[in-house]
């Protein structure tokens, strides 16, 4: 039976190439993750603490940006091609965006990894949330800019395919998978504007020395303007698979096509005007703006809650088709031995927990308790690290045969691998959440302050560290098995019918969806309006407070004692000492400062 690679051999090559880059990034990123987890839990230290931040940056960039987004462009290319049932308009454009993204990735990675070698005058230890005052080598920002422009071109490629298809099918509904791709890309265009402005107008000129200072709060706010929607950019490929592939793997059909469209439209509208929920503790943004971001975030729960309903209903339908019965015992009728099904279903189950910790993050007052603690990495290892990453790995077991014409090398290894990921993540992210509640900080190689004990409500800090270390080891081994299985599949021979690649019609089909849902221009217009409403005043007040170029010099990642003394004395020098007179401790400090100044 002809499958994707037979019908669209050129597109299949691009998808395979995108997956290959994604999986290389996954392997390197996972290794760095293991080294870090063992380091900060003090189980095994093979690097200097100074290098921890270099590895942390590489881990974040390679996994959260490169692995996820390269998988996304591959998946979306497959989805657009198969759902329009036609080749892409110009395969040279397709290879061009792939080439640009890959070159950008290589440049950014070189800039980061160079930080491990003191003899190379280049580093980018700025973490994957790359805002000022931390500064990277210009090559890092230039690489990222190329990567993002590559994704824009990919979107253009898919919109051109849509235009061609529309020309021949003026009255048809947009096929569901293509609808998901196009709406996701609209969200991406709106949201990457923030990071593009930050990188092109501020970070690149600043790192090249063309401007001396930047306004750190401005680059931070522009980053988070993009930094929240990017999490849905990672999530939408997983949703595409949960909506269109998971029900089929479960033995059933999607419950409702119209509801799926509503969900994706809601993401276009609401993903961006919420970014300030990452800045609840930032000074310089009025509480009222934070409150608006919180309210929008709570509305943004809706599409995911609708997804939980629709996808679980579809899976239950599948189970009942397979003879499942009862309120819950239908769960046993599901094809748990199929790695593609089991991986995606486990990813979805963990997302229910990760979504819950997201709701906690989103509450402004509770956020003060968890912000900048290990709770937050706990949250995102359940969301991007499992809902997304595990779905992508599981999806590979179903997609790779269509792209290569080869059967998966070992389904039992695949099953073992997805289960190991789930169990590893249960250990690691649960322990991270608990550690966060004790106040253990994130983004540090040395969480254990001297002469200070974290107090555990239940269990002990040592036990939590062991769980994190053990979980990270399972996760790493799971990636090794995954990469082995994929490489062995690639190396195998072609078979006649590698996989059943059909996707059945939804129970409630697209003909029942209101036509307005397919009006992409309308949703884009409303999305832009909501962004303007949510961001004009906060940005205006940030620029008004400190100017477009602010006043922050570069802040080094590792600081010497001399640097601390210089900066402290400099800051104290700006204080008016007389204004402190009369306050007894202040007098003492003032005396000290006079002493230092002399
Ligand atoms: Fe988040 C921080 C709020 C979702 C990722 N988040 C982060 C960071 C990352 C991240 C990476 O409001 C850290 C950034 C940094 O480095 O500082 N997040 C939320 C909220 C949601 C949410 C409200 N986050 C995500 C997703 C991510 C992600 C998705 C990646 C993919 N997050 C926050 C906030 C912060 C934050 C604050 C800042 C914290 C701070 O202080 O720094 C919501 O979208 C979640 C909604 C989800 C649900 C769950 C629905 C359940 C479903 C399961 C269906 C079941 C199936 C199984 C399919 C309501 C859909 C079926 C199978 C069977 C067998 C039946
Ligand atoms: Cu967010």
Describe how the helices and strands are arranged:
Blueprint: H1 4-7, H2 9-40, H3 49-84, H4 91-113, H5 138-168, H6 176-207, H7 216-227, H8 229-244, H9 246-249, H10 257-270, H11 287-321, H12 339-362, H13 364-370, H14 375-404, H15 411-437, H16 461-491, H17 520-546, H18 561-574, H19 584-597
Helix pairs in contact: 2-3, 2-4, 2-14, 2-16, 3-4, 3-5, 3-6, 4-5, 5-6, 6-7, 6-8, 6-10, 6-17, 7-17, 8-14, 10-11, 10-17, 11-12, 12-14, 12-15, 14-15, 14-16, 15-16
This protein binds heme-as (HAS) and copper (I) ion (CU1).
What does this structure look like?
With about 600 residues, the chain is mainly α. The protein folds into 4 domains: about 160 residues, no CATH class; about 160 residues, no CATH class; about 170 residues, no CATH class; about 40 residues, no CATH class. Helices cover about 70% and strands about 0% of the residues. It is built from 19 helices and no strands. Helix 2 packs parallel to helix 4 and helix 3 packs antiparallel against helix 4. The longest helix has about 35 residues. The model has no long low-confidence stretch (mean pLDDT about 95). The site of copper (I) ion has 4 residues, from loops.
Q: Note the total helix count.
A: 19
**In the residues, how many domains can be counted?**
4
Shape: globular
Q: In whole angstroms, how far apart are the ends? A: 86 Å
Tell how many strands the DSSP assignment holds.
0
By helix and strand content, what is the structural category? mainly alpha
Q: Helix amount, in percent? A: 55-70%
Distinct small molecules bound, one entry per kind: heme-as, copper (I) ion
Largest sheet: none
Determine the mean pLDDT: 93
Radius of gyration equals 25 Å
Strand-and-helix sequence, N→C? HHHHHHHHHHHHHHHHHHH
Beta-strand fraction estimate: under 5%
Stretches with pLDDT under 50, minimum 5 residues: none
Pfam family, one: COX1
Transmembrane segments: 17-38, 58-81, 93-118, 138-160, 181-204, 224-246, 258-278, 298-319, 340-360, 380-400, 412-432, 468-488, 520-543
Subcellular location: Membrane
Family: Belongs to the heme-copper respiratory oxidase family.
